[in-house]
Design brief:
This is MFS transporter. It is a multi-pass membrane protein. It is found in: Cell membrane. There is one protein chain. The radius of gyration is 22 Å and the shape is globular. About 75% of the residues lie in helices and about 0% in strands. With about 500 residues, the protein is an all-alpha fold. It has two domains: about 400 residues, Up-down Bundle (Growth Hormone, Chain: A), CATH 1.20.1250.20; about 55 residues.
Length: about 500
């Protein structure tokens, strides 16, 4: 039986709720940026004379820097301080956004996107780890992560709306400039209300070999899937990346197992519940990115929606995401085990995807798409909220940054895989349908025939997404065995660190 923790040691930060508001603003900025630029890309491409072959680098430059440096950013937050890393990430992200908005050519645009990725890799894990160390009470943690989960899940859809509005009514450059006021508000709030809990920093030296191996391994993995989408799975460089990445990541794991001050302590990665969260969440993101991708294609190509109209059409998903995170996930997290929220949440999202497999060229928005999107948001919101919390739950404060970085890494890698894999499946299915239905072309007309082939490709890929979500749910049910949260546990002794009491331990 552990001794009682003195009251002063467990006193929560009195400014934590105000801090949450500004952490949420920063997180919204990062999540918005993942989709807002996609809407503006066609206009920016023409304005800056970016070739069709090079336009992918507007997305790829960001994805490589962000995905590759997340673990580094998470550990920097642990060592340097989360507040300082958070503010540095915000200022750098705003500066990179200003550079992108002012771009006069493709080189300047690519550089700005890479810089956004670098500073985003500092900002995202710092934001999540701040929540992990500021909110240790079970009820408060549920509310805080409910809000965070709603933003993390729904922000991408909101980015489509904002990107469409800015591109249509102002200029594509404002999809970059809009980040600046977000960053200014978040920096001012951070200076006033955010503080690192005493003793939560990690005083270990930075693991340079670990940084190099993890960064190169993750960059190779993300680039491999990104290149597969544009150049094919048998492309020489694609194959080389898929060979190089596992070699580098295996070397990283071997190094971490022997290092005295590892970048990613294997205790963080291999704990059963966190490992289950990282894996199930990464798979679920594959499916969710597929939904964004194919519904956007369907609405803009088949239904000929304008950019803003497409964005607004995703509103049911945002509503469902907010409801799932704040009204279901946050309310039930303290009453039922996490697996009983994550598993059913992913299964509900699978049902939504199953509905979308019935898409046809003239499907009703209100009769099919809107209900499916609402269910998708509801399921993902219900699952994301406990997943975000459990990923940093019970981890020592000194490891909160890198544990948070793993959440973002699983999402980023899942997004890269989802975009490449599902897009390839859709393209192959489209080609196959076109070849086998040539006799129907005269009756359908040229456009009708092309559209029917495209929709078949979309629905085929969505069927795969259904299967991926079912697997994600199965992993949640099997691997995640955490019970309901208990009271905060006292800090461990004898590790040479002065720490606040650790976050609540997970009950098996």
């Amino acid at each position: 039986m552990s001794q009682a923790v003195p009251q002063a040691a467990t006193q929560p930060d009195p400014k934590r709720w105000k801090a949450l508001a500004f952490i949420a603003v920063a997180q919204l900025m990062v999540v918005l940026d993942a989709t807002i630029v996609n809407i503006a890309l066609p206009t920016a491409k023409d304005d800056l004379d970016i070739s069709t072959a090079n336009q992918q680098w507007v997305i790829t430059a960001y994805a490589l820097a962000f995905g590759g440096l997340l673990l580094f950013g998470g550990r920097i937050a642990d060592i340097w301080g989360r507040r300082r890393t958070f503010i540095t990430g915000l200022i750098g992200f705003a500066g990179a956004s200003a550079l992108g908005g002012a771009a006069t050519g493709q080189e300047m645009m690519f550089a700005s996107r890479a810089l956004q990725g670098v500073f985003g890799a500092l900002l995202a894990p710092a934001a999540l780890s701040l929540l992990a160390v500021l909110f240790t009470d079970g009820k408060e943690r549920a509310k805080a992560f409910g809000i965070y989960g709603a933003i993390a899940g729904g922000g991408g859809a909101l980015g489509l709306i904002l990107g469409g509005a800015l591109t249509e009514y102002l200029d594509w450059r404002w999809t970059f400039f809009v980040n600046i006021p977000f960053a200014v508000v978040a920096v001012l709030g951070a200076l006033a209300y955010i503080h690192d809990p005493a003793g939560s920093r990690n005083r270990s030296p930075l693991d340079i070999p670990g940084v190099l191996l993890s960064t190169l391994g993750l960059v190779a993995l993300v680039y491999g899937f990104t290149r597969a989408e544009s150049s094919g799975w048998t492309d020489t460089y694609t194959v080389a990346m898929f060979v190089l990445s596992p070699v580098l990541l295996a070397a990283f794991v071997l190094w971490e197992s022997k290092s005295k001050a590892p970048l990613l302590p294997l205790r963080v990665l291999l704990e059963r519940n966190r490992g289950g969260v990282y894996l199930s969440l990464g798979l679920a993101v594959i499916a969710m990115f597929g939904l964004f991708l194919f519904l956007t294609f369907y609405m803009q190509i088949i239904r000929e929606y304008e950019a803003l109209e497409t964005g607004v059409a995703f509103l049911p998903m945002i509503v469902g995401m907010i409801a799932g995170s704040t009204q279901i996930g946050a309310r039930l997290m303290l009453r039922v085990p996490a697996r009983l929220l994550m598993g059913p949440g992913f299964l509900l999202a699978a049902v939504a995807m199953l509905i979308l497999t019935q898409l046809e060229t003239d499907s009703s928005y209100w009769g099919l798409m809107a209900p499916a999107m609402f269910l998708m948001g509801l399921g993902m919101g219900t699952a994301f909220m406990p997943a975000m919390s459990l990923a940093t739950y019970g981890v020592e404060p000194r490891d909160a940054g890198v544990a948070s970085a793993m959440v973002n890494t699983s999402q980023q890698v899942g997004g890269a895989i989802g975009t490449a894999l599902l897009n390839t499946i859709a393209a192959s299915a489209t080609t196959a349908w076109g070849s086998s239905h040539l006799k129907e072309a005269p009756a359908l007309g040229k456009q009708g025939y092309q559209y029917a082939a495209l929709v078949h490709g979309y629905t085929t890929a969505i069927w795969w997404a259904v299967g991926i979500l079912v697997v994600s749910a199965a992993i949640a049910f099997v691997f995640i065995n955490a019970g309901k949260p208990q009271a905060p546990a006292p800090a461990a002794e004898g590790d040479g660190l002065v720490k606040e009491p650790a976050p609540p331990v997970v009950v098996h």
